Amino acid sequence: MTEILRVQGLRKAFGGVVVANGIDFSLSAGAMHCLIGPNGAGKSSFFRLLLGEHAPDAGTITFDGSDITALRSFQRIRRGISVKFQVPGIFKALSVRQNLEVAFQDHLHGQSLGATIREMLDFTDLQSEEMTPAGILSHGQQQWLEIAMAVGVEPKLLLLDEPTAGMSPDETRKTGEMLHDLNGRGITILAVEHDMAFVEQIARRVTVLHFGSIFAEGTIAEVIDHPGVQEIYLGTADV
Amino acid sequence: MISSETAPRSRTRSLLARLEGPQTMGRGPAFWVAATVAVAAAAAYPLMADAWTVGNAAYFLIWTFMAMGLGVVWGYAGALSFGQTAFFGLAGYAYGVITLNLGAAYGLTLLALVLAVAIGGLFALVIGYFMFYGRIQGVFIGIVTLSVTLVLETFMAQTAGPQWRIGEARLNGFNGMSGMPPLTLPWFGGDIVLYPGPSLYYLLLGLVVICYLGLRIMLNSPFGNVLVAIRENPHRVGMLGYDVRLYQMLAFGIGGAFAALSGALYTAWGQYITPSSMGLTSAALPIVWVAVGGRRDITATLIGTLIVLAGFQTLTIYGSQYALVVMGALLLVTVLAAPEGLIVAAMTLMGRVFRGSKR
Question: Could you tell me the residue ranges of all domains in chain B?
Fold first, then answer.
């Protein structure tokens, strides 16, 4: 399978705190991959480095065949990376429809814009909320709206930072179904997630981060059986 | 053949459709009938009032451009500029310098007006570039813009000596420039000179209507969508693939060009411009007009500015020494009682009462 993302020797330190300590990571196109690790393992920093919010001290990031290490965030997004943050990053004072318009209008116009908005309203079950200010949606609906904003123009790679944080079990299950659906359409998915049941539902492969380095990688069964993984979660591993 | 004829027409139609949208209050036949009646009443006003009063009304109209521009920058794009007067003053001086050098024949004053607006708008783009690409945010935008206008005021105030001249035009320091020609329209058998009075009033009324409708179209366009999204959550807008700084800079340039239009028209109206037009008091007033009317809606900004200006002048004329104190109090009351603005509050209330006709 072709490789969509390759990270080589990625390093970033804030003073004495090393958040990425020479990370080598790659993702093949069409993958559905989870990134796990204890608090402070560097998962969110890794995302920020991928998105260009932090500039790395060393290392390269290659996306879809080209080096994006020096590109600004919005330029990376334009190449086909999309992101959904942990705290819903929607425009609360704007209607659901306007949120979707802002997300898609750069790529789509006229009838195709309207069609994609309708499709995404169906996809997220928000048809009846089209004109509702996004800020008064339920937490789960806000999360789905943001997923819709992130995937409406079919990115190549979707980054999800704890997509189910604060969701009810029912909403979590539905979110998992949505992600399988999106993956089926050819979108590569990389998610940071804490909820292991959800990880099992969505991920085919899992990477464990610890102290800014890759600690283990494999299928979910392999990772759970890995002797060190449980220890780092309990905080006793000597690495 | 058919497509080449229908394409421009459908483009016009889609532009006109943007006169209404989520970014602007007022929609449907009731609103447009009311707006037409208001413009017709304004057009009939010179028939009922004497020339001096009409010239005075023209003076109010002059300021609405700066107010609407600030509405775009502050209300829509979310960047509080405290220094729109910098662009106002610069364009005012530019109009003076250009007309004093070129003269008023052949409609050159109109060229001077256009050049002055371009100079003010370009200066705003440059300031906007350094601010937004320098990652200045929030209250610091207010501080930087205020500093720019105060520096310009101080600079112009010390240009009293004879060495401070540009061609024929003496800058005259604290006393300011005067004696530049008013706007002239080239016409068969002699130029029409637009002294403060009905002719200037009609020109300004036309400009206000054009700018207002143009801004409505712009604000409901994809560009306007991105501006309000930046106001709500700039980080997310960047993460949707937009260059936030570019949009902020462009909005700031548009706001600056509108302030410059006010400045050049003001100079043409009164045939003078002084450094105090860029001073602290002058810089604060547009913020009061826009906040009191409602900064997040262009209609509210326009109506509110006209009402506050008329009230301010009435207070000043009828002997109150405290007009500025009243302005300050008005701002406080607005911020505490109707933070969205008094006109927005009134329009929302009317919308509720006439819900049937508004929807």
Answer: 51-276, 279-359
- Are B182 and B268 within 8 A, CB to CB? yes
Closest CB to A73 among B222, B232, B238: B238
Contact A211, A18 (CB under 8 A): yes
Task: Give the phi and the psi of residue A178 in degrees, each rounded to 5.
Answer: -60, -45
Cα A55 versus chain centre, distance: 19
At A107-117, the pLDDT tens digits run 888 888 999 99
Beta strands in chain A (DSSP E): 3-14, 17-28, 32-36, 58-63, 66-67, 81-84, 157-161, 188-192, 205-210, 213-218
**Nearest C-alpha neighbor of B71 from the set B211, B203, B204, B279:** B211
Interface test with A, best of B133, B235, B237, B240 (most A CBs within 10 A): B240
* Extended strands (E) in chain B: 165-166, 169-170, 177-178, 184-185, 192-193, 272-273
- Entry field: residues in chain A: 239
Residue A236 buriedness (CB in 10 A; 0-12 / 13-18 / 19+)? exposed
- Rounded to two decimals, the pTM is 0.91
All domains of chain A, ordered by start, with CATH? 3-235 (3.40.50.300)
Q: From the first residue on, what is the mean pLDDT of each consecutive set of 10 residues in chain B (359 residues)?
A: 58 86 89 95 93 90 97 96 97 96 87 97 98 94 97 95 90 91 85 85 96 96 95 94 96 98 96 95 93 93 94 80 84 88 87 64
Q: Beta strand A157-161 with A188-192: parallel, antiparallel or unpaired?
A: parallel
Determine, for residues B239 and A103 on separate chains, whether the beta-carbon distance falls below 8 Å. no
Please name the residue that has the structure tokens 């659901």: A96
Round to whole Å and give the CA distance between A19 and A145.
Answer: 30
Q: What is the number of H-type helices and E-type strands within chain A?
A: 9, 10
Write down the ipTM of this complex: 0.89
Q: Between chains, do B236 and A106 touch, taking CB under 8 Å as contact?
A: no
Q: What is the pLDDT of residue B200?
A: 92
CB B293 within 8 Å of CB B300? yes
Name residue A25's beta-bridge partners: A7
CA dihedral B36, B37, B43, B47 (to 10 degrees): 160
Give the model confidence (pLDDT) of A37-75 as tens digits.
888 888 889 999 999 999 999 999 999 999 999 999 999
Evaluated on CA atoms A67, A72, A73, A76, the torsion sign reads negative
SS3 A81: strand
Say if residues A144 and A178 touch (Cβ distance below 8 Å): yes
Give dist(CA A16, CA A13) in Å, integer: 7
For Cα atoms B340, B343, B344, give the angle at the middle one, nearest 5 degrees. Answer: 45
Q: State whether the Cα torsion A131-A134-A136-A141 is positive or negative.
A: positive
Report yes or no: B180 at the A interface, CB cutoff 8 Å: no
Listed by number, the residues of chain A in 170-209 with a beta carbon closer than 8 Å to a beta carbon of chain B are none
> What is the DSSP track for B97-134?
HHHHHH-SGGGHHHHHHHHHHHHHHHHHHHHHHHHHHT
Residue B126's CB is within 10 A of a number of other CB atoms, namely 13
State the Cα–Cα distance between residues B56 and B62, nearest whole angstrom. Answer: 10
Cα A7 to Cα A33, A126, A155, distances in angstroms: 15, 37, 19
